[in-house]
Structures are given as C-alpha cells and as structure tokens.
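Task 17 of the worksheet. Students: predict the tertiary structure of the chain below and write it out as structure tokens. Keep your answer in the requested format; marks are given for formatting as well as content.
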Amino acid sequence: MHFLRIKNEGAVKREMIPDITPEKLSAETARLCNDGRRIVTLFGSREGAGVRIYSVLADDETSSLYVSSALVKEGGSYPSITPQLLSAQFFEREIYEEFGIIPEGHPWLKPVRYPKNAADKNLKMEDYPFFIMEGKQVHEVAVGPVHAGVIEPGHFRFMCTGEKVHHLEIQLGYQHRGVEKMMKEKDSVFLSESIAGDTVIGHSLAYCSAKEALSGTEVSDSAQAVRAVMLELERAAVHIGDLSALAGDIAYLPGNAVFGAIRTMIINTSLAICGSRFGRGIIRPGGVVFGIDGDMQEQVNNTLDVNEKKIDLMCSVMFEASSVLSRMQTTGVVDKKTAEEIGMTGMAARASGYEVDSRADHPFGAYTHVPVHKRGMKSGDVFARAYLRYVEIKQSFKLIRELMDYNRNTNLIADMKPQQPSMFVVSLTEGWRGEISHCAITDKGGKIERYKIKDPSFNNWLALALAVRGNGISDFPLCNKSFNLSYCGFDL
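Model answer:
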C-alpha cells in the first residue's frame, strides 16, 4: 500500500508522504475505499510546473488516516477515480475546475463552482450543462438562485411529471469567496470563524487544531474541555433550531414555537460564556480566551436541566402526532447503501444507518477522555433525520455535563510556537452537520502554502438531490430543511 498512515491532528514532514504515479494513486484510492476506507479529502496543490494531488483516506475502525500523492503536469490528466468510487466525483470536479487537470473517464465532468480564478476562463455560470429529460409529460421547475428568504444564492432545477420529481440538479457556486486563498494570505482565526456562520465553533476548532499541530503547541485539558463544551452547545442549539424549522414546514406550530424559544436559551448560554451567541472569539490558537468557572458551570447545568425537560415533553408529543408522522415518515429517503456510495457524513449519514462520527472514529481534544458513542437510525427519511436530532441533543447535554468535570479553569491558553517548515496535517472535527476537514501544508519557511477546507455540506448536497427523487415537489422544502446544508460552506 503506497499510503502513509497518520492520525487526526498528527503533523508529518511532507517528504514522508509517498510520491507515486497518478495511475497508481487513482487505482489505490479506489481499491482501499472499496475495501472499507473512505475519502476524507482529495485536492490539488501547485508544485513547480505541475499540480500535486493529495488523497486522504480514513479507516474509521482503527482511527487512522492514510495519505498519498501524485504529481500531474500542468494541463495534464490522470485516470478518474469516480467510475470505481462515486464519492470521488465532487472532489475530482473541483480539481478540474481549479487547475484544469482532467480526470479521464469521469462520467460527467463540469465545475462545481465558477470562481474568478478558475483554470478555464471560458467557463460561465449561464452555460452550466444541466441534465435534461425529454417527453411530452416532462416539465422543469426552476427555483432560485434568488430566494424569498435571506439566504445565499443556489439554483434548484426539478425534472417532473405532474407533481412527481424524477430528478433534481442543484447548482451552487454563485458567490465563490476565495476563502482558501485568503487563508493562505491572511492565515486568520477570524476568517475560520466565517467559513460557515452557523458552524463558528466547528471550523475555528479545526483551524486552531491544525495550527497547534503544525507548531507542536500543547493545549491544556481545561482548554480542550471548554472547546468541546462549546462545540456541543453549537450542535444542540442548531439541532433545536432545525426541529423548530421542520415543525414550521409541516405547519406544526406548537413545535415551531417551543423549539424556537428553547434554541434562544441555548445560544444565550454561549453568549454568557464568551459574549457571542454563535461562539465567536472564544477559540484561539493555543486554547481558549474564556473559561467556565464554578458559577458559570452551575448556570449552564441549570439551563440544560430546565430545557431538557421541555425538549423531552415537546418531542414526545410531536413525534407521536399522526399529522407529523404522515409528513415525515417515508419522505425523502436515502438508504444506507446510497449513503455509503456517495460519501455522506454527519447526522444525515447516521440517520441512514451509515454511522460515521469523527468524535468517536478519530477522537480529538477532550473526546479522547470523554468517549462518544455513535447514535443512528435506519430509515433514512425526514423522520429519521428529525428524530436523530432529538437523540443528539440529549447526547450533547450529557456530554456537556461530563466535559465540565474536566474543566479546571486553569492554563486556558498557551503561547504558540513557530510553525514548522515543510509540514502536512489533517485536522478533523465533528461539526453539527458532520465531519469538517482542514488540511494545511507549510512551505520551507513555515508559512501556509496550501489550506484545504471541506465543510460537510460538500459531501451531502448530492444526498439531498437523491432524497427528493420519487417524492412530490411540495415535499422539497421539508426534505431540504431535514438536511439544512450550507451554501457558503460549499461556495468557499
């Protein structure tokens, strides 16, 4: 096997990463993933007169990561991985878009975004090659990119007969922000907090962990505990907000109102700890800026106790209501086989029986002391994605109580050491949507040469498109909310 075995947040010298032929990289990536591994990230980095493609795979059973690379000449090609491994399709399209490298044999090669720095300047958003269905009864329904709500642009094109959806194609990339390029130039924790506004803790934690690994900086147990508390508060708050939104989408107004009010109480707990409802400003390289002292710990516990009872009561009523079950059950199904094939991640994958969770599979920070037991469902429908949110809220509350026992409120932030030169690191964090991946490479002077970000939405947008198939078009808003994916997390 021509891959180097590493661990989550384990920085290694670049020279240790195998340099193999593009043909061998494609074949080995497909073989290993079909043998039980999965793609974490697949990306390119300019090197000399070519582009080095890095393949990072996960073996969740052994908590191991495997990395290898191959150099492809400028404007060159390599054998596509996608025909043997469907989960590679978005990654290969991204490499093509950014560098013009052709994955030969890719079944439908087109960009995933249309940035100003795309390799092919002739590619235009208005020329996007949508899938087309023909037939006298077939009609198209276009939604977006401009929406009624205050959300980022995204275009949804439905192929229907009557009310039945046969195919949905989702076109994103309208506002490519150049985050990875800015990260190379600015290398800023403030930028990491803005990758996806509802995942401030998840992305800033992945960023800081990568920086600490590259510099060999040790973070105290107290700081790691606070970080994990904030991560679980973020998870619980968004899940509660999503339950409110899902209830609203099916006109179940008691759930919409109650969960909406409870979400406010949870995000206000983050506000009390660090001054921001979304957790901005607390996680910094070396640790955390704010601790959780005895009085604050008591306040957090009281908030959890009061609101957990309310959540239990509302969920018991909501998930027993026939009107709720009739709208959620068997709607928007993604089965386990499909989830594995397309590389789904996070809560949505676990709701389909594909149980991947970086907190358990590749423990980081405080989760090495406070283990996470994976939770999942099997039906893969809207109900599963809704009910699993309730299960994970309960789990997060339990973890927060346990994590605060590890918080001693001392040595909260360490002085950062200089970043080491010519290093490579992968930092995985389990955000509320799923696995967040930050991969950083330093140059000979220790500065960031390449920074690659993968938000879990990158894995899961295709799952939404597949979930809608065979459903009525009126079910789309409910299916969409049951995933609650990020436009900006995709349009990096």
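Marker's comment: The CA atoms of residues 439 and 452 lie 5 Å apart. DSSP finds 16 helices and 16 strands in the chain.
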